[in-house]
C-alpha cells in the first residue's frame, strides 16, 4: 500500500512538473511581448503616472537598475548578518514545505483515504494556498509590517504540525487531522513576504541580484533537503519527520524576529549617519503608502540638504545614508 502510494505521489508530481513547464514555455513569449522593461517604457502609464512612479522609487531608495557590476556590493553582501538571515528564512521555510509538496498525499493516505480521495482532498488545500498568499500579501501591505505578518502566518502551521504529531491515525480523528493538514497551507504565504521584505531592504542593483540568487539557492536547497526528513519506515504517522519540521518552523519564527531586531538596529545606525552628514535623523518612507505621496511631504530639508539625490546613484543600502529599512 505504501509503495503504491509512493508511486502515485511521484506520478502526480511528474505530471505537475511537466504541466508547469509547458505553461512556462507557452507563456514566456506572451510575457516578453506584453510586460514592459521599466517605468519609462510602461505603456499602461501616463506621463504623469510615470513621473509619480519614479518619485516612488526615489522615496524607497532601492534604485531603478544598473548594468554595472560592483564588487563593493558583493563584499558588503558577504559581510552582512542580514544576508545569512535571509538565506536562513528561505532554507527553513522551503524545507518545511516538503511536508505538503511531497508527503501531503502520504499523510492523508495514512488517515485511511485511497489515492482518489487523497487527490480530491488536495483540491481545497490548493485553494487555501491561493487564499493565504493573497491574504498575507494584503495584510502585509495594510499593516506595513512584513515581519509580524510573516511570523503570525507561521503559527497556524505550527498548530497543524502539533495536531498531526499528537493525534493517532484513526477514522475517529479524521476531521481534526484533515483540518490540521489544511492549516499547513499557511506556510505558502511566506515566500512572497520574504521576497518583498528582501527587495524592500536592499539597495543597489548588484546587491539585489546577489541577494535574490542566494534566496533562490536557499529555496532550492530546502526543497532538496525536506524530503530527506521523512522515511517510509515511519509511516503512517511520520513522527520523526513531523518533529523535525516542527522544530524548523519554530526556528523560522526566531530567525524572523532576529532579522526584525537587526533591521531596527540598522535604522538606528542610519539615523546617526544622517545626523553626522547634516541631514534630518528620521526620514519617512512614503513608498509604503497606498497612494502617491511626494517625498518632500514630512521630509522638509534642513540647512539646505535636499533629500533623494542618492536614490538613482546605484548605491547599496549601507552606502546610502538616506536608506530606511522596513520591518
Question: Which features does this protein show?
Answer:
mainly alpha; 327 residues; 0% strand; 65% helix
Descriptive notes:
The N and C termini lie far apart (48 Å). The protein has helices at 2-34, 47-60, 71-79, 81-96, 98-101, 104-111, 115-143, 146-166, 174-183, 190-200, 205-225, 239-276. Helix 4 (81-96) runs antiparallel to helix 10, helix 6 (104-111) runs antiparallel to helix 9 (174-183) and helix 8 (146-166) packs antiparallel against helix 10 (190-200). The protein is mostly helical and 327 residues long. The model has no long low-confidence stretch (mean pLDDT 81). It is globular. It contains twelve helices and no strands.
Topology order in helix (H) and strand (E) letters: HHHHHHHHHHHH
The total strand number stands at 0
Low-confidence stretches: none
Distance between the termini: 48 Å
Based on Cα principal axes, name the global outline. globular
Q: Which structural class is indicated by helix and strand composition?
A: mainly alpha
Query: What is the share of helical residues?
Result: 55-70%
Strand residue percentage: under 5%
Q: How many DSSP H or I helices?
A: 12
Main β-sheet: number of strands, strand sense, barrel status?
none
Cα Rg: 23 Å
Instruction: Compute the average pLDDT.
Output: 81
Amino acid at each position: 500500500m505504501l509503495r503504491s502510494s509512493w508511486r502515485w505521489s511521484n506520478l502526480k508530481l511528474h505530471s505537475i512538473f511537466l504541466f508547469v513547464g509547458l505553461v512556462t514555455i507557452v507563456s514566456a513569449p506572451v510575457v516578453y511581448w506584453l510586460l514592459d522593461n521599466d517605468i519609462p517604457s510602461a505603456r499602461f502609464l501616463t506621463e504623469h503616472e510615470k513621473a509619480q512612479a519614479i518619485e516612488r522609487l526615489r522615496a524607497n531608495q532601492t534604485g531603478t537598475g544598473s548594468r554595472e557590476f560592483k564588487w563593493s556590493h558583493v563584499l558588503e553582501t558577504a559581510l552582512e548578518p542580514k544576508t545569512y538571515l535571509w538565506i536562513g528564512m528561505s532554507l527553513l521555510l522551503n524545507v518545511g514545505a516538503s511536508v505538503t509538496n511531497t508527503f501531503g498525499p502520504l499523510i492523508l493516505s495514512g488517515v485511511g483515504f485511497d489515492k482518489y480521495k487523497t487527490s480530491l482532498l488536495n483540491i481545497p488545500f490548493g485553494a487555501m494556498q491561493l487564499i493565504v498568499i493573497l491574504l498575507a500579501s494584503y495584510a502585509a501591505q495594510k499593516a506595513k509590517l512584513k515581519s509580524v505578518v510573516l511570523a503570525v502566518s507561521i503559527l497556524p502551521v505550527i498548530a497543524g504540525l502539533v495536531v498531526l504529531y499528537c493525534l493517532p491515525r484513526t477514522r475517529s480523528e479524521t476531521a481534526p487531522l484533515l483540518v490540521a493538514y489544511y492549516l499547513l497551507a499557511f506556510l505558502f504565504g511566506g515566500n512572497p513576504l520574504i521576497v518583498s521584505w528582501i527587495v524592500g531592504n536592499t539597495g543597489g542593483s548588484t546587491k539585489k541580484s546577489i541577494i535574490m540568487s542566494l534566496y533562490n539557492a536557499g529555496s532550492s536547497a530546502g526543497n532538496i533537503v525536506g524530503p530527506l526528513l521523512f522515511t517510509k519506515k515511519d509511516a503512517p504517522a511520520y513522527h520523526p519527520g513531523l518533529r523535525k519540521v516542527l522544530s524548523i518552523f519554530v526556528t523560522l519564527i526566531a530567525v524572523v524576529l532576529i532579522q526584525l531586531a537587526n533591521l531596527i538596529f540598522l535604522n538606528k545606525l542610519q539615523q546617526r549617519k544622517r545626523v553626522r552628514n547634516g541631514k534630518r535623523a528620521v526620514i519617512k518612507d512614503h513608498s509604503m503608502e497606498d497612494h502617491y505621496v511626494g517625498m518632500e511631504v514630512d521630509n522638509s530639508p534642513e540647512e539646505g540638504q535636499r533629500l533623494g539625490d542618492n536614490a538613482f546613484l546605484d548605491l547599496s543600502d549601507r552606502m546610502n545614508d538616506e536608506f530606511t529599512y522596513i520591518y
